[in-house]
Amino acid sequence: MTTRLATRFAACAAEGRAALVTFVTAGDPDFATAEAILHALPAAGADVIELGVPFTDPMADGIPIQLAGQRALKAGQTLRKTLAMVRTFRKTDAATPIVLMGYYNPVYVYGVDAFLKDALDAGVDGLIMVDLPPEEDDELCLPALRAGLNFIRLATPTTDDKRLPKVLQNTSGFVYYVSMTGITGGVISSYDAVGEAVARIKAHTALPVAVGFGVKTAADAAAIARGADGVVVGSALVEKVRLSLDGSGKATAGTVAAVTDLVAELARGVRSVNKAA
Amino acid sequence: MTVQPVQNSFRNGPDEAGRFGIFGGRFVAETLMPLILDLEAAYADAKADPAFRTGLDSYLKHYVGRPSPLYFAERLTEHVRGLSAAKGGTGGAKIYFKRDELNHTGAHKVNNVTGQIMLAMRMGKKRIIAETGAGQHGVATATLCARFGLQCVVYMGAVDVERQKPNVFRMKMLGAEVIPVQSGTKTLKDAMNEALRDWVTNVADTFYCIGTAAGPHPYPMMVRDFQSVIGTETKAQMLEMEGRLPDSLIASIGGGSNAIGLFHPFLDDAGVRMWGVEAAGHGVDSGQHAASLTGGKPGVLHGNRTYLLMDGDGQITDAHSISAGLDYPGIGPEHAWLHQMGRIEYISATDSEALDAFQLCSKLEGIIPALEPSHAIAKVLQLAPDLPRDHLMVVNLCGRGDKDIFTVAEHLGGM
Hints:
The structure holds 2 protein chains of 2 kinds.
Chain A: H1 4-14, E1 19-25, H2 31-44, E2 48-52, H3 63-74, H4 79-92, E3 98-102, H5 104-110, H6 112-122, E4 126-129, H7 141-147, E5 150-151, E6 153-155, H8 164-169, E7 175-178, H9 191-202, E8 209-212, H10 218-225, E9 230-233, H11 235-244, H12 255-271
Parallel strand pairs in A: 1-2, 1-9, 2-3, 3-4, 4-5, 6-7, 7-8, 8-9
Chain B: E1 19-20, E2 23-27, H1 33-47, H2 50-64, E3 70-72, H3 74-86, E4 94-98, H4 109-122, E5 127-132, H5 136-148, E6 151-157, H6 158-163, H7 165-173, E7 177-181, H8 188-201, E8 206-208, H9 219-227, H10 229-242, E9 248-253, H11 257-263, E10 273-281, H12 292-295, E11 297-301, E12 303-308, H13 333-341, E13 345-350, H14 351-365, H15 371-383, E14 392-396, H16 405-411
Parallel strand pairs in B: 4-14, 5-6, 5-8, 6-7, 9-10, 9-14, 10-13
Antiparallel strand pairs in B: 1-2, 2-12, 3-4, 11-12
Helix pairs in contact in B: 2-4, 3-14, 4-5, 4-9, 5-7, 9-11, 10-11, 14-15
C-alpha cells in the first residue's frame, strides 16, 4: 500500500529537494482560525502537515507549543474536533499528508480502537505520540500499523546505535529526528552534528528522515535541508500565531497570513537547496 | 514437565515492563528512554550490592535518625474510646503513630531521597533536579545535596512557592536553586512537567530525584523500596511492643509514597487491613479535590498509567487540597493496582476534616502533624471508635506541621 506520506516524500525527492513539514496546533487560537490556517498551509508551501493535538501537560514541549495548546484548549478544542478538522480538510485536499502529533492520554481516553477507526475515516495518515517509546508499542503503535496508519517515531541524540534498531523497528512513514536533547523551540547548536546523525539513521533505514527542533528561519531550513529528507518547523509557526493576536488573545485579520508568510519563506529556504544528483 | 509454584503475592510487582497489572509502564519521550533504562540497570546493580545497603543504612541511622519510634498515642486512643462511649459503644482501637515526622527534615521524604542521592553518586551524576509540592521533598533533596556537595535545582509550582514559604527559604539556605513554575496550574503536576523538561534537556549530567512512588518505571518501584523502611520497622516494633502484627494501617495519599512505604511490607499479611486516605478538598462531589482513585479514572501522565483526574477529552483537571503535598491529580501506579485488586481500601478526608484533626492531634498529643497525615488522623477519628479496644491501628505520621502553621492560621481566621 502506498501511503500519502510515502508518495509525498518520493515526490519531493524526485524534485531534488527536502520536504517542508509544518506543525500547527489544532484549535489555536480558535477552531475557525486554525481550520483556515490548516487549509492555507499546502498553498503556502507545506508538503506535510503535523497537526498538534492539544494536551494540558505537554512534558516535552517548550513554552511556544505549551501556550498554543493552552490557547486551543481554552477555545474548546477536543480530539473529536481535531478529527473533524481533518475530515473537512480532506474534502478539498486529497494529497497532503496529515500526521497527528501529541500525547497519549487523549487518545487513550477516546479509546484506541474507536480513535483509529475515526482517524482513518477522517483522513489522518500517521501518528506521532511523544510519550509512547518502543517499549510501549502494544498500546497504540502496533494497532495503528495494523489499521493502516503510519506510526512515526522520534529518534534523538540519546538514541545510540544499540538502541536505534529498536526505535526504527515499527516506525513507518518517516523518521523524525529530534536534533537536540531538550524541549521544542530550542536552538540548534551544530548543523554538522545533525548531518552526521541523519547519515547514522539512514544507515539503518530506507525511510525518509525529517529533522526538527530549533528551525526558525529560511536559513535554518536550508541548512537542515542539505542533509535531511524533511525539515520540521513548529514553534516558530505557533509563535507567529501568538504574535498576531489582539490584546485579548483573539485572532486578527492577520493571523492566517502571519503563519502562511513564514511557511512561504521556509519553503523558499527548503527549495533553495537542490540535491538532485 | 515442572509445575511452577503459584505465587499468590501482592509484593511481586512490577513486572519487567514496569507494570502493576495494567498500571505503571514507561510512557516517556524517546530522549529519556535510554536514561530510564540506565537508571533501572544502575538500581538493580546497587540493590544487589550489600555495600550499597550498608552505606544507605548507615546514613539512615546517623544522619536521618532512623529507626523512627512507634509511639502509643494514649490520649488520642482515650479520645476515640470516648467517642465510642458517647454512641453507647465499648470500642475504640488502640492507636499508634509511626513517627516519621521525627526524621531529619521533618518528613518521610528523606528516606527516599537518601537512597536516590546515594544511587546518583554511584552513577557519577553531579546535578540533581527535583519537583516539590509542599516543599518537603524539595527540602530533603536540598539537604542531601548540601551534605554531599551536589548541585540542586528544585522545581516548585508558583502557587506552592507562595503557600509554602518556610520550605522555600529552607531550600535556599541549603544552597538549592528554587525555580517557581508558572505553567499550567502552577502546582505539583506542573513542577513535575518542568522537571521532566529539564531532564530532557540536561540528559548527560543530571539525575532526576522523583519524590513520590509515581513516574516512569523504575521510579514507583525504587521509591517504594526506599520508603519500605517505614513498614519494615513498624513490623518489628509492633512485634516487640505488642507481640503481634497490627490489625490495621492508615496513611494519607497524594502520590502515595508514605502509604506504600508503610503498607508494602504488610501486603501479604492477610489479617492486616489497610486504608489509604486521599484528599477530598472541598468534597469529592464538589469537583474541587485531589482524590484520584475515588473521583478519577485510568489514564496516562508523567510516565505511568494510573488513576487521574481528567475531563472527557483526557485533559488533566486541577486538583485541590489544602495540603500542597496531596494536591496532585494522579496517584502512584501500585496504589491504582492495589485499589483494583481490592487489597487496600481507599477513602478520603476533606480540608475541614483535616484541619480539625490537625488541631486535635496538636492538643491531645503535643504533636503538630503536617496537613498531609492530618487527613489520615481525620479518618482515624471516624474508624477507630467502631473498632474493638484490642484492635491495633498504626497511623503513618509522615510529616510535621511546622510548614503548615501559616496555612492553618489563615483558614482558622488568624490566631
